[in-house]
Automatic annotation (TrEMBL):
Keywords: Membrane, Transmembrane, Transmembrane helix. This is DUF1405 domain-containing protein. It comes from Paenibacillus gallinarum. The keyword Transmembrane helix applies. Pfam families: DUF1405.
């Protein structure tokens, strides 16, 4: 029994090893999965984007599609792994994007799952799309944590990412352009707002701890 457990742990460690995660074929697979998910995510926000454009300044559009933008950051981060830049300024840009990818992917991955489950707990209908969204958003958070050790960003980029994410929170709840909530949560926007800001801080801390684990702090 102990031997079987050891083999299981070793098989998991192999699957998540550098040789697998940094394999170019695997990176390209992740890239296309994330790119398609990003496109689908922006399409998912189509109605809210149109409504925001009609009723708010166009500059606020960038703050509307939270999860797809997080996925876009991660997709671009994979490109920087596939084609490491040689120019110093481009490398710095890549590090900021990677920091954004980590903080926003953790934050919105967990946030979306939490909102779906909260909607269920308040009596919302359970539909098959919910399970698809849960799986895809959990994957966002997991892949971000897995790739921190391969990204090159440091504390400065992580702080920039946290600042951007907090700004996004402020815009969402000041102008009420936050992602559409399950109907059952519409009377609890104040609680959702508090949870959202708290989750941004926790996502920053998670990224910081991951950086420490990667020994870049």
């Amino acid at each position: 029994m102990i031997k079987e457990d050891v083999r299981y742990v070793l098989s998991l460690s192999f699957f998540w090893s550098r040789s697998v995660l940094m394999n170019r074929g695997f990176l390209w697979l992740l890239f296309w999965c994330n790119l398609l998910g990003t496109v689908y995510g922006y399409i998912w926000y189509d109605n809210q984007l149109a409504y925001t454009l009609q009723n708010y300044p166009a500059a606020l559009l960038v703050f509307v599609p939270d999860s797809p933008t997080a996925s876009l950051f991660f997709t671009l981060s994979l490109l920087f792994l596939l084609y490491p830049p040689s120019l110093p300024w481009l490398k710095k840009v890549g590090h900021v994007i990677q920091g954004l990818a980590v903080v926003t992917s953790i934050k919105y991955g967990v946030w979306a799952v939490s909102m779906i489950v909260a909607g269920w707990s308040f009596g919302g209908d359970v539909i098959w799309q919910d399970f698809m969204l849960i799986a895809s958003h959990l994957a966002m958070a997991v892949e971000a944590l897995l790739y921190v050790r391969f990204f090159g960003f440091g504390m400065v980029s992580l702080i920039i990412a946290a600042g951007w994410t907090l700004l996004n929170d402020v815009m969402d709840y000041t102008f009420e352009i936050y992602p559409y909530l399950p109907y059952e949560l519409n009377d609890y926007v104040g609680g959702v707002r508090t949870f959202t800001f708290t989750l941004t801080i926790l996502s920053f801390i998670a990224g910081w701890l991951a950086l420490k684990q990667a020994k870049r702090l």
